[in-house]
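One thing: can you check what follows?
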Amino acid sequence: MTRAAAPIRPPRLRPGDRVAAVAPCSPVAADLLDAAIGIVRGWGLDVRIGGHVRDRHPVLPYLAGTDADRAGDLQRAWLDPDTAAVLCVRGGDGAHRMLDRLDFDALRRAPAKALVGFSDVTALHEAFAVELGTVTLHGPVIGTRYFVGDTAAAERLRATLFAPESQMRLAPPTATALVGGTARGTVIGGNLSLLNDGVATPHSRASAAGGILLLEDVGEDASRIDRMLTQLLRSGWMRGVAGILLGSWTDCTPSPEMIRELMRERLAPLGVPVVWGFGFGHCPAQLTVPLGVAARLDAEAGTLTLDEPALR
């Protein structure tokens, strides 16, 4: 694996830029995709839809087409010199399956561009950080209700893409400290399930050492969340983490209170700042959080302050 000495910040967007919409994971609803394209075009952008975005796998209906086709759309978008950003239309399933279909040597030679998405897209964030050393954006997948009809989430993404200097201090009102303190590190992470599934696989980081780690998930039971956290802890993956930001745990059972106490019980022994309710992930008005940038976490204040804008 090759990684640049310093993170590569892609260029910010400007009106008239071309962006690509791709489906590296699960199928997207046609009406939500059409609405999303209309919103992004309303930002003054030229949206090109990947050739297989509307596909469905012939045997596995939870996948948006074959692994080769999904990887091909993503690779063509990244290699296109006229494309300024790649917007994932949905999470779900399948990102890990298509990673080995990507030609990272070719991707590495292409100019960096903004990659946007969350949930299953965590696998791509990890791979692009490890293999390309580029900053990516943990933000809405546009062909879903987390973007269409969510004006706050859409506006936060738009501001990050066009005016990243306006989004350098993230301070959601719901943030509360589970473990106090301050920390400095590189912002990493995303979906807990995807991070757990990526341990000891190609294109995933060896550990969270030195990172301010984002964790969130959806539709999981507390016992499964406990097992995943335990795997990350016992494997040594979380050794040396600088701080932890906890996002949404939508539809995680049996209750938000139990999930919160589970997080306190498992993570407090690490002795690093831990913040609950940081407003990213499967929730309304989600933040767009840059990954790969250096930042300062203040748990008591509930703030994450970037050292520099995510995009240049």
Q: What stands out?
A: The first strand starts at residue 18 and ends at 22. The chain has two domains: 18-166, 169-306. DSSP finds nine helices and 14 strands in the chain. The two ends are 25 Å apart (CA to CA).
